[in-house]
UniProtKB/TrEMBL annotation:
The UniProt record lists the keyword Lipid metabolism: no
One Pfam family hit: Methyltransf_25
Gene Ontology biological-process entries: methylation
Organism listed in the record: Methylocystis rosea
Sample GO molecular function, one term: methyltransferase activity
UniProt keyword annotations, A-Z: Methyltransferase, Transferase
Protein name: Class I SAM-dependent methyltransferase
Length: 290
């Protein structure tokens, strides 16, 4: 069975979920989070053609949710990577893996908006944009804002809700999933593929946002590229979802080495019961951009 067929089956069968992992021991990993494997497929990721196992799971018992929570902590103690549940139906490695994330979004691109809480995404994007535009430096002409991991383009609606349009703010999106880029483009967002985005000159943006992206795993080189493309004094406004203080410290350290200092850290009101920090980073003025 193909991975897209497994996802189609998941959508038809209420109790089932999908697990993404690079390893082949699906039965063991399923038990670790309180499920049993019904079927699986091995397919290659758009990143590096690396193999990823996609498995359809069902609960082992009525208290599977409690088992999953317990097994996640057990997974950390046993040396196996723990998993995080996203969009209520998918398990991916908690540490974040761009290889898995690329395949995940490629498979669900057309169904993303029926699976995700789109209103929460748009409201969060609005908060990130408002802070980015308030704190970023002024410039002549439209203010260029990078939408990193733009997905299906929810930031377009957020920008309009803030009373801005292409005449005073130019939103430019990029994403590792070209199917999602196509949807964002159809919504009117200017988009560039990730490989082309990496070649954009330094100091091109007054601000950047990243909405519900960092927890999927962003390579340090891409974080440095975001920083490099900001003007001195530029703002990176992002949220860290379902993370922890260790992940926050690692992210802050990585961005600090790229000349971005954390100036704001607050729980987002859009998901008050889940770890979801609104982070604001400001680029130092002391280094010339190339």
């Amino acid at each position: 069975m193909r991975p897209d067929e497994l996802i189609g089956r998941m959508l038809r069968e209420e109790d089932t979920v999908i697990l993404f992992d690079r390893r082949n021991d699906v039965e063991q990993q399923a038990r670790l989070i309180g499920y049993e494997a019904l079927d699986c497929a091995i397919t290659s990721s758009p990143i590096g053609n690396a193999n990823v196992t996609v498995a359809l799971l069902r609960p082992m018992s009525e208290n599977a949710q409690r088992c999953a929570t317990t097994a996640t902590s057990l997974g950390s103690r046993s040396g196996r990577p723990s998993f995080v549940k996203l969009l209520d139906r998918f398990y991916i490695p908690k540490a974040g893996d761009p290889v898995i994330s690329a395949l995940f979004f490629q498979l669900i691109a057309e169904r993303y908006e029926e699976l995700a809480a789109i209103d929460v995404n748009r409201q969060t994007a609005e908060i990130l944009l408002r802070a980015a535009l308030k704190e970023s430096p002024s410039c002549d002409g439209p203010r260029k804002v990078l939408d990193f991991g733009c997905g299906t383009g929810c930031a377009v609606g957020a920008l309009m809700a803030l009373g801005h349009d292409g005449r005073n703010v130019e939103l430019i999106g990029t994403d590792l999933c070209e199917s999602m880029l196509s949807i964002a483009k159809g919504r009117g967002e200017a988009v560039v593929p990730l490989t082309e985005w990496r070649a954009i000159p330094g100091g091109d943006f007054v601000a950047a946002i990243s909405c519900f992206v960092l927890h999927y795993g962003v390579p340090a080189d891409d974080l440095a590229c975001i920083a490099q493309q900001l003007k001195p004094g530029g703002i990176f406004s992002a949220n860290l979802f379902k993370g922890d203080e260790a992940k926050l410290a690692q992210l802050t350290s990585t961005l600090s080495m790229a000349d971005l200092d954390l100036i704001w850290n607050e729980q987002l009101i859009t998901t008050p019961d889940t770890y979801n920090r609104h982070l604001l980073f400001k680029k130092r003025n002391g280094r010339e951009v190339s």
